[in-house]
Design a protein that fits this description.
Blueprint (H helix, E strand, L loop, with lengths): L1 E4 L7 H9 L5 E5 H4 L12 H10 L3 E5 L2 H13 L10 H15 L23 H12 L8 E2 L6 H8 L4 E4 L9 H18 L2 E5 L4 H6 L4 E4 L1 H7 L2 E6 L4 E6 L12 E2 L2 H13 L4 H6 L1 H24 L10
Helix pairs in contact: 1-3, 1-13, 10-13
C-alpha cells in the first residue's frame, strides 16, 4: 500500500529534505492550486516548489491533486461575501490550466503500474457521480488520463462503467451528508471492494487513513494530511502495534485546538509518552518545540500503520473478505 502524505503548507526544500532523509515519507501529494500560481486564488505557496524538487531529487513518488476543492471553496466564499469572482478562472479555463500542467509534468509523478500513466486525479467539480463521469471523459479527450473519483452517491454500477472503459484504478471518497457511522462506511466499501475484485479494479482512498480502514481493506494507495495537521497542533501520533490503533498526544506547551488529541499535558501520560519517544531514539524536548521533528515522528508512525496493513493483507487476515 502506498501512502501519499499531503498537507504541510509551511514546508520548503530544507524541511522536506530533512523529513525525506529521516526516512519518514515514501510518497508525497501536491496540489495544483498550491504549487501553481492561478489567477484569483490565494493558495499559491512559492516555497512548495523547493519541497517538490526535493522529493524528485530523492526519488519520492509524487501524487498530484487537481486542487479543485480549493478553487470551489474560494469561489463559494467570495459569492457568500458578495465579492467579485470575475478574476477567478471559470470552469473551462480551470480545466484547461490543469490539463496543460499535467501534460507538462506527469512524467515526473509516481507511475501507476497498469491502466493509467501516472498518479494524478480527475477534476470533480461537483460531488455528483454522473457529472464527474461525463466531465472525466471530456478531460480524457483533451489528452490526459487521470484517475477517476467516486464519492459513493449513486449506484455502484458506475464503477462497472469505468471498468468497461479500461479504468483499473479509481479514487474512493465520501462526505458527511451521505455517511457518518462506521457501519455505513463498511457497507459502502464492502460493496466497492467486492465489485472491484470481480472487475479487476483497485482503489485509492481519498483521505481514508483511519486505522480500521487501512487495516480492513486492501487499498492500492491512500492519502492523508493528518500527519501534518497533528504536528501543527503541537501533537504527535502513536501507532500501537498491539492494539492496531493510532492515537495522538498533545506535547507542546501551547494550547491545542486539534480534535484528535487523546491527552493534553496529563503528567502521568506525558511521562509515558516521553519514555516511548526516547525509546524510539527521539529527543522529547525537540518534539515539543520543533514542528519539523514532529513531522518526522508522525510520518514514521503513519508508515508503521502502512506496514501493519500490508502485513495483514498479505497474510489474508484482514476483516474484509470478497463475496466472489
Amino acid at each position: 500500500m502506498k501512502l501519499f502524505f499531503s498537507g504541510w503548507q509551511a514546508t520548503n526544500k530544507q524541511r522536506e529534505s530533512a523529513v525525506i532523509k529521516a526516512g519518514a515519507i515514501r510518497h508525497r501529494c501536491f496540489s495544483f492550486a498550491m504549487i501553481q500560481k492561478l489567477p484569483g486564488l490565494p493558495y499559491y505557496l512559492p516555497r512548495l516548489q523547493g519541497a517538490y524538487d526535493a522529493c524528485r531529487k530523492h526519488g519520492i513518488g509524487i501524487m498530484f491533486d487537481s486542487g479543485v476543492v480549493s478553487w470551489r471553496s474560494h469561489r463559494a466564499t467570495l459569492r457568500k461575501q458578495g465579492k467579485d469572482i470575475s478574476k477567478l478562472p471559470d470552469e473551462k479555463t480551470f480545466i484547461k490550466l490543469y490539463v496543460d500542467h499535467v501534460k507538462q509534468h506527469r512524467k515526473e509523478w509516481d507511475k501507476v503500474d497498469s491502466g493509467m500513466d501516472s498518479m494524478y486525479f480527475t477534476i470533480d467539480l461537483e460531488r455528483n457521480a454522473e457529472d464527474i463521469f461525463r466531465r472525466h471523459y471530456e478531460i480524457v479527450k483533451m489528452g490526459i488520463n487521470p484517475v477517476p473519483v467516486f464519492h459513493g452517491d449513486s449506484s455502484l454500477d458506475i464503477l462497472r462503467r469505468y471498468a468497461d472503459k479500461g479504468c483499473t484504478l479509481i479514487g474512493l471518497a465520501s462526505w458527511r451528508t451521505i455517511r457518518t457511522q462506521q457501519k455505513q462506511f463498511r457497507a459502502y466499501f464492502d460493496g466497492c471492494f467486492d465489485l472491484g475484485e470481480k472487475l479487476g479494479i483497485r482503489f485509492h482512498g481519498l483521505a481514508m487513513t483511519a486505522s480500521w480502514l487501512m487495516l480492513t481493506y486492501p487499498w492500492y494507495s491512500t492519502d492523508s494530511s493528518s500527519w501534518s495537521r497533528v504536528a501543527g497542533y503541537g501533537s504527535i501520533m502513536w501507532f500501537d502495534e498491539h492494539k492496531q490503533r493510532m492515537s495522538a498526544f498533545h506535547i507542546s506547551d501551547r494550547h491545542s485546538e486539534g480534535k484528535s488529541t487523546a491527552a493534553k499535558m496529563n503528567p502521568i501520560i506525558m511521562g509515558r509518552v516521553k519514555e516511548w519517544v526516547e525509546h524510539e531514539g527521539f529527543d522529547f524536548k525537540e518534539l515539543q518545540t520543533d514542528f519539523v521533528q514532529r513531522h518526522i515522528w508522525n510520518g514514521k508512525q503513519m508508515l508503521k500503520l502502512v506496514d501493519a496493513a500490508d502485513k495483514r493483507h498479505s497474510n489474508g487476515v484482514g476483516q474484509w473478505q470478497s463475496l466472489f
